[in-house]
Amino acid sequence: MNSSSVGAMVMVRLDAVKRNYSVGGQALVALDDVSFELPQGQFMAIVGSSGSGKSTLLNILGCLDRPDSGRYLLDNVDVSTFDDESASDFRNRRIGFVFQSFHLLPRLSVLENALLPRRFLRGPDEGLEQRAHALLQRMGLQRHLSHRPDQLSGGQMQRVAIARALLMKPALLLADEPTGNLDSKSAADVLALFTEVHASGQTVVIVTHDADVAARAQRQISLRDGKIEHDSAV
Ligand SMILES: Nc1ncnc2c1ncn2[C@@H]1O[C@H](COP(=O)(O)OP(=O)(O)OP(=O)(O)O)[C@@H](O)[C@H]1O
């Protein structure tokens, strides 16, 4: 394990997580007995060939899906038993998502997109507009606040998505192939931002096919047929 994470608090704990799908009446094992711990502040990449279970694992980590068996603890909370409403509230507050295809709302401005998590907030606003401005500035987008997504480059759209993902100060930042739709220069810029966000203390998990992207993480786990084939921390 990287020396910087020794002694850090455990942010994520997966114990014997299984996830099956039923395909044509047959059970397909998408995740098979997956266990690991992720210390707070670590930057981990999940790699593996197509169909190995990467997205299924990311969806479970992001509380978009639940294990069929096993346990998932995030920040000492057992989220594997949450109902849909508790899971979505928890997800909005504690998890930031960045997707390959950005998932921005086309009719909203850059600032409004970055502020989207506020719409799902139950309770006080907590100065989110000020925080969105600061994050967009950090992403180099201060001159684009009123632009619509179709007026931005791919790299700029992804930077808006990163600002949105960080708005609620998530415990966990998850990214699914975040550079997959970008040219090499924009991909390098976005990757540098992830590295910077991690350096500021954020726990980050990134799914990628790209060995160069994975090499930027502190730790890599590779999946094969739903099992952990290799964990660089072990
Ligand atoms: N909703 C679903 N219904 C049935 N089977 C599914 C479903 N989602 C995923 N699977 C199957 O589960 C296995 C793991 O899929 P998953 O999408 O997690 O893999 P992946 O590693 O993310 O692949 P890729 O790199 O192609 O995105 C695959 O065999 C896939 O076909």
TrEMBL record:
Keywords: ATP-binding, Nucleotide-binding, Transport. InterPro entries: AAA+_ATPase, ABC_transporter-like_ATP-bd, ABC_transporter-like_CS, ABC_transpr_LolD-like, MacB-like_ATP-bd, P-loop_NTPase. Residues 12-234 form the ABC transporter domain. CDD domains: ABC_MJ0796_LolCDE_FtsE. One of its GO terms (molecular function) is ATP binding. This is ABC transporter ATP-binding protein. It comes from Rhodanobacter ginsenosidimutans.
